Amino acid sequence: MPIPIILDCDPGTDDALAILLALASPELNVLAITVAGGNVGLEITLPNALALVALAGARVPVHGGADNPLLGEFLPAHHIHADNGLGGVILPPGPPPAPGIAADAIRDILRGAPEPVTLVGIGPATNLALALATEPSLAVHVRDIVLMSGGWVRGNITPAAEFNAYSDPEALAILLGTGHRVVFAALDLTDQALATPARLAVWRSLGPGRCLRAACDIQVAVPPSARLGGQGAPLHDPCVIAWLVRPDLFTAFPAHVSVDLAAGPDRGRTRLDRSGRTADNALVLDTLDADRFFALLGDRFASLP
């Protein structure tokens, strides 16, 4: 049976590809897409999510949510995602958003769910944290929490912190404190999903579909990562969707994860403890079969309109 999920995002170039992958995967039942600010402002991320769902020909409700983290403000990453969040690629506009704000929609879905729902977060964790912190009893209706967040060796927004974790570390701490296992696709894993020109050329050869073309155009527009030697740009967010669909592409290990909430240079740093002295609260994705990952994405994008 398909896994019921709520996909929380901030599109964003890699969010865009993750959304398309989720909508192309029969292993998943996408109950709703909820949207926060993050990579760019909510006034951009929400129309982007609506446009992507329409492009895929899907009928999934899209709810707008938090335009700021629990504390402070989101700091956009225009240098990666461009002013429109999609690398400058223009998509036809989608329909209006579904009524209600994201946190309310998440709570409503969990209350009425006939089976536990997996919460998938590929942006700042604000919407998910607001939903669970304001009605903690709903945690019994959650199957797993799966996040693209964190980094164990280095960050990508500060030397210490990964972008999503840094954008709302208090929200991430709330999810880590729910008592549910949190699955982490952190930078150490997602950096292995390097979209090189050769891999994107293979995608382009797979067909003429509008979703495949958009995925290629969006990813080509992402600047190569100097942090990774300029060979391409990592596809962070699609990794969590791929793990749900094809866990055999990954290796993983249990660990305890915490996040630094203090002001200063370590704010948003995620800390990994494998000593066994603290109870495991996370499953950490460790390695990725990158060639099979890119083959999966190409095949799924080509299956869309």
Architecture (CATH level 2) name:
Alpha-Beta Complex
CATH superfamily: Ribonucleoside hydrolase-like
Annotation field: number of helices: 12
Helix content: 25-40%
Strand content: 15-25%
Runs with pLDDT <50, length 5+?
none
**Span of the ends, CA to CA:** 24 Å
Strand order of the largest sheet: 3-2-1-4-5-6-11-9-10
User: Any idea how many domains?
Assistant: 1
- Average pLDDT confidence is 96
Walk me through what this model shows:
By secondary structure, this protein is of the alpha/beta class. It has one domain: Inosine-uridine Nucleoside N-ribohydrolase, Chain A. It is 35% helix and 19% strand. It has helices at 13-23, 42-55, 78-81, 102-112, 126-134, 163-167, 169-176, 187-190, 197-204, 210-220, 238-245, 290-303; strands at residues 3-9, 28-35, 62-64, 117-121, 142-148, 182-185, 194-195, 233-234, 250-259, 270-273, 282-288. The strands form 2 sheets. The protein has a 9-stranded mixed sheet with strand order 3-2-1-4-5-6-11-9-10, with helices on both faces. The chain has a two-stranded antiparallel sheet with strand order 7-8. Strand 1 (3-9), helix 1 and strand 2 form a beta-alpha-beta unit. Helix 1 (13-23) runs antiparallel to helix 10 and helix 4 (102-112) crosses helix 5. The two termini are 24 Å apart. The model has no long low-confidence stretch (mean pLDDT 96).
